[in-house]
Amino acid sequence: MLHKVLLLLLFLLVATPVFATDGRVELVERLGEKIPLQLNFVDSTGVNVSLEELVDRPTLIVPVFYDCRNVCNMMLGTLSAVLPEVKMEPGEAYNVITFSFDPLETPAMAAHSKQTFLTAMQAPFPKQAWRFLTGTQENILQLTDAAGYYFKKEGDEFLHPITAFIVTKDGTIVRYLPGQRFSAIDMSMALFEASEGRIGKPIRQALQFCFSYDPEGRRYVFNLMRVSGTVILLTLGSFLLFLILSGRKKKK
Fold it and tell me: 106 partner at 20 to 30 Å CA-CA among 46, 73, 122, 252?
């Protein structure tokens, strides 16, 4: 009896997926670094595909899990509304990849999600230009680690950053788009930068200054104290400079 219990425990330990190596929930931007294009995933039709096949032009990559009841669906819903406003030809100038970081999710779930958000788009969009993928735990973690995207599972839910990132056709990361809401202008600029191989460091630094990641809310929040403090200091500095210059003029 004891022998059977030990075997069962061993099986559970082996079979239980490990979703993060150190349990942290964090986004570490790896601008200028490359994602491993040799990795294989399964698309929504059940076909095995490599990232090298899909990333043959500037590509927006969106990590989610399809059974998410909260921010993932909101992010994909916003994306479906914004993509028709991007002034570039999908499938020609750029591609979109959504992949699940839950290795237990299936191609059928990916197909359901793809159908849902392409229908919500209410605009013509090539099906091959927006791929929905699932993969093995090993390949998922290789991709998320390369992107600096760290997450963990708690119960039936995941704690994870809310972001998408854009890569060039050789897999170089050029921009992160944090938050669950996208703007067509930011996305168009980022894709254009990717087509030229330029890395969006100034935008990244501005976003890091203005926004902080809230792991409990699983979203980026506007850092009001930091931004308002900077505005007040700049205003006071400008006012003092004005007083000094006006005082000099009066003396003259």
Answer: 122
210 is in an annotated binding site: no
* Residue 197 backbone class (left: φ over 0; alpha: ψ -120 to 50; beta: rest): left
Q: What are the per-10-residue average pLDDT scores of the chain (252 residues)?
A: 44 38 80 95 96 95 91 91 91 95 96 94 90 96 96 87 94 90 84 79 53 49 67 79 72 60
Instruction: Let me know how long the chain is.
Output: 252
Helix-, strand-, coil-residue percentages of the chain, each rounded to 5: 45, 25, 35
In angstroms, rounded to a whole number, what is the distance separating the alpha carbons of residues 52 and 65? 22
160 marked as binding residue: yes
Q: Which two tokens stand for residue 175?
A: 């921009």
- Domain ranges across the chain: 18-222
Question: Tens of pLDDT along 64-113?
Answer: 999 988 889 999 999 999 999 998 999 999 999 999 999 999 999 999 99
Helix (H, G, I), strand (E, B) or coil at 241: helix
pTM score, whole prediction: 0.71
Classify domain 18-222 at the CATH topology level: Glutaredoxin (3.40.30)
Q: Spell out the residues 6+ positions from residue 207 whose beta carbon is closer than 8 angstroms to its own.
A: 176, 178
Tokens 């009066």 identify what position? 250
> For residue 178, with 0-12 CB atoms within 10 Å meaning exposed, 13-18 middle and 19 or more buried, which class applies?
buried
Cβ-based neighbours of 107, under 8 Å, separated by 6 or more? 42, 43, 44, 45, 46, 134
Contact 61, 99 (CB under 8 A): yes
